[in-house]
Amino acid sequence: FVFTFVDVVDNEDFLPLVKTPTEAVGLKAASLPAPQTSTALQNISLKHPWTEIQNTVYNICGSKQLWGNNGNVFSFDEFQEHPENVDEEQEAEEGTLEDGRMGPRLNWIRKARWMNSGFPGSEELSREKNSVDKVSVLQQQILTLTEEVKSQKELVKLLHKALEAAQLEKRVSSMYLTAAEDKDRLELVRHKVRQIADLTSRLEALEQEKKELEQILALRDSHIQELKEHVQLLMEKNHAKQEIIMTLTEQMARELSDPLQEANTITVETLYKQQEEIEHLKDDIDAYKTQNQFLNSEIHQVTRLWTSVAENEKALLMKCACLQARNCQMESKYLTVLRKLQEAVPDLPSSHAELVKSLIQEALQWDVKEEAEEVSFELNTTLCPSSEYDEYGFMTVPDYEIEDWKLLAKIQALEIKSNKLRSQEIVEKPLRDRWNSIGELNPSAELKSLIRSGIPVEHRQRVWRWMVSRHCSPEPGHYQRLLEQSRSTEHPACRQIELDLPRTLTNNKHFSSPTSQLVPKLRRVLLAFSWHNPAIGYCQGLNRLAAVALLVLEDEESAFWCLVFIVENLMPADYYSDTLITSQVDQRVFKDFLSEKLPRLMAHFEQYQIDVSLITFNWFLVAFVDSLVSDILLRVWDAFLYEGTKVIFRYALAIFKYNEEEILRIRDSVEIYQYLRFFTRMITDGRKLMNIAFNDLNPFPMKLLRNRRSMHREELEAELCELEQIKAAYVKERAEQGP
């Protein structure tokens, strides 16, 4: 509240209140002893406004007695029924001073009297100054008194509101006290709670309306700002036009005022025309600028829409991929059940057996490509293309001749597709982004980790060329000279090469037919290598190594040097010699590692007299070609070209670890051999196999591998020497016995 004496009162008691207990109201509260006076308006309670109004009016009435009839507007006659005289007032003042508690109040009363006494010293001012000064002083006093009247009116309004609230509370309290039963009191309390809830909801609605109005105000402010900028632009344009007009006018005036150049001056009409043309051109420029602004706004909106559509499209593609992966899993489980039923056909009734056979035939006739045709949008094929062949020409569903294996191939294709769909966004995309960020290739732990995870198709050719060139520098023209030599002279291995060409990667469309484009390239690469390395010439298995190099590197000379790098740098010496002595050594080393890393499985093999080298020998000789599915095979080759033969040992152990539980459940040696013939084709999760190879089988030091090779090589050479001696003795004995 605004009073004329607010500036005078500093840190003194103002309107001392009677502190009432929260439990009592009305006469019961008034009958209680008054506590000590408070020190500020902060003690006014809104919980019992009627009591507070009584205290406030009492204080104001007391103040009125002290002010007297000095013309002050602080008059509350309606609250004073028995005015007191001045002597009583003086006695009250003396009593309060003696009491020691009303001292600050007396000071406040004296200061208020001084403020309302009509500005002391005004008579001296009237004697010293003229009437104009008196009028100004009186006007100032009128303004001050007017402000006081306004403040008193506001106080009266507030007091009326507080009085109404107090009366309402009094009525409610009286109803609560006069209620006969607790049920009625509870109903009153509930009514109050409902009123509070209603007021709260109204407050929330008002706040919401306030926020909406603030938003509208902000939009209007921005619109006003745009209009201001537009007006500013128009003003600047107008100013520029005025400057041009003034310049042209001055120029025309100068030219017309010069009598020597009258013949060369431009007429006024011509100047006006040029000026009009300039104005038109400027208007056109402004129009183009405005149009450009609108176009930029539309482009921005279209870009936002495109971004939103792209995000929705990505979400839909991810959802489609998840659904496709789930569908592949369900189909794979269905085919697995059919395969189990197929194994149990001899024990089933004839009707059930016929039903199982018909279901199997129906499942085998279903083509993987049908799924892509059923999908109406083309983007699904970009997410995970469904095709008969993969990126390098390998068949996604191998065409096995054995009827039992056809269903197995179908299950394998579905599992591979499901794994690809699930890992597309989670694994493959971040890995591809990391590969895209790599510039120049340099050996490092990060590059090693990336290569182990698998090289993306778009980077594989570049990385393979780099890995080959690190250890095997191509000699310019050397490959062409070898080709000329093979054309002029027939190599002894030429016949064997021709026999092996049709048997190379029969599940790949680039080698499945004699007329395929890569078959002549493969022939030239193998002939060139046979002349390049006469000690080896040609060995069965080299055709598969060269074929994989051709598929990835595409250029036959690069494939030739890749074959040279594998045979002469990665593999140990004599790995592809006539005796294959190092290959046999690696089989013994692998059995040692198998006993150490997978002792249960090795004991199982020994129990049923299984010689794993009959299965694994070909793995090591051709680096898993024709044993693993193409996607996993190329990941193995990525790490093999970077780290060497240790990777072959890791993956060979990982393959057995991957299928260990399945093998342990088989209790027959013949069934174990049959299972080992195709169990590598059942591996569909390349990520899981990679984690087993490079994490679960650690540690795998290269030094240990070298020591084992050296030890077993000495043993094998001693055994071969002993066999040669036995053979020589046998030949000598037969020669002595005669024909």
List the helices and strands and how they pair.
Blueprint: H1 26-30, H2 49-67, H3 86-99, H4 103-115, H5 122-128, H6 131-178, H7 182-257, H8 268-343, H9 350-365, H10 369-374, H11 379-383, H12 403-436, H13 445-453, H14 457-471, H15 478-488, H16 494-500, H17 518-532, H18 542-553, H19 556-570, H20 581-597, H21 599-607, H22 613-622, H23 630-643, H24 646-658, H25 660-664, H26 669-678, H27 686-696, H28 702-737
Helix pairs in contact: 2-6, 7-8, 8-9, 8-12, 13-23, 14-19, 15-17, 17-18, 17-19, 18-19, 20-21, 20-22, 20-28, 23-24, 24-27
Describe this structure in words.
- By secondary structure, this protein is mostly helical.
- Among the domains are: 138-170; 479-570, Helicase, Ruva Protein, domain 3, CATH 1.10.8.270; 572-738, Cyclin A, domain 1, CATH 1.10.472.80.
- It has helices spanning 26-30, 49-67, 86-99, 103-115, 122-128, 131-178, 182-257, 268-343, 350-365, 369-374, 379-383, 403-436, 445-453, 457-471, 478-488, 494-500, 518-532, 542-553, 556-570, 581-597, 599-607, 613-622, 630-643, 646-658, 660-664, 669-678, 686-696, 702-737.
- Helix 13 runs antiparallel to helix 23 and helix 17 (518-532) crosses helix 18.
- It starts with 25 loop residues before the first helix and ends with a helix.
